[in-house]
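As a warm-up, study this chain.
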Amino acid sequence: MHPGYLLIPILFPILAGLFTYLLPLSKAWMRRIYFIIVIFLNAGFMWMLLFFSPSEGLVLLEFTDTLQLSLRLDGLGKIFAGLVSALWPLTLLYGFDYMKNEKHQRRFWAFFTMAFGVTLGVALAANLLTMYLFYEMLTLVTIPLVIHEMNKESLAAGKKYMIYSFGGAAFAFLGLAYVLSFGASDFVLGGFLSGKAADSQATLFWFFAFVGFGVKAALFPLHGWLPTASVAPTPVTALLHAVAVVKAGAFAAIRLTYYTFGTEGIQGSWAQRAAMTLTLITILYGSVMALRQTHFKRRLAYSTISNLSYVLFGITMLTNTGMIASLLHLVFHSLIKIVAFFAAGAVLQYTGKQKVSSLEGIGRYMPLTFTAFTVSALALTGIPPLNGFFSKWYLSLAALDIGGPLEIAGICVLLISAVLTAIYLITICIQAFFPRNYKALICTPENCREASPLMTVPMLLLSALTVAAGLFAPQIAALFTKVVLG
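Now compare it with the structure written out below.
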């Protein structure tokens, strides 16, 4: 297949989103048909590329012999692009119902569609310069989604998101500038800088860039934008927390560590220890803060902060087993968390309830929604044989293989976090299905009802995938190892 096809899944949704303003899509059904065609066609084409990917890359713009904007689809990119292309169409269907009464839908769906292409640009970038370009574009196209409501709260959230993102980008740019001083090169497993740079310099700039990309991955203490951004419409927060933004940050950290700098010079350094310490602090902090939240979506937001650092913890082990374990949790957490946010959005849309305390007995009126949420809660806690258990298990095995003090402490942190997760999520499920006082239910048939099929079908489908991913987790881990490591 010609390498020029790599540009299509990036450019097509970006142009389709822009053309939204030129087309007469005044009716809701017109917009739905248009965006279904665009999103599903693009996802299908991307999946075709995963199976019939070009063997060569595509140079978009050449500044010098070594400085280029280029695309290439390798094993790691295939996994991230496949994840994005699987979740975006389902979020589209969910969003049709959620956004049906919202204003400014043309703007919302335009940027929603453009974000799809930009996220795939992050996945298909062949080098750090290209990935950085799409990474920054992702901030620009998601800001309008965060501030969609255009009220005081959403505008403040958008401003905070922008400041944090651009601040993180500044730190990441330091690492990019250092890399470019050696002459840019395409991503190479093992790191094309390995053996070329002085260890003391490389570790410093790797740490700067790791923290910079860690902003989008909500690394403590640069996590503050994520809970605030939960004021955005649920289709946006679901993508922010499951794949589009936060996972792009984690994906960028993998590219930076294993495909650019390499692990040899960083292994055992102060930078590795500092980065790993930050991930462990973030895991505990996120879990404790989630336990304290009374707002349903904010509780899930802090849960995301905690789980993102599971991925970063695996990355900072600087081993192939750690990388595969982190990649496994990146994918599994995406399936789990998008279901949880879908459920929270369905509750908000069909009952108007936002507080955890108001969910008493709601499972009797929204059984499909809370069945899906229960699967998500159990998986996120790490109950076998669901997929969340296996990704945490592989992270623990990777840490045991190293056996250092921080890695052993990391296993203890994962166990503590699992207990806290059970408390702040599974208690919601118990409360929803088994209220303490049936005579004083807050929900009634008049103000609580099951969500529409446009919401419940994506939730149940992704819940089934969560269960299936757990049942076939060893095979998936073996596939990831083969695709990424060869």
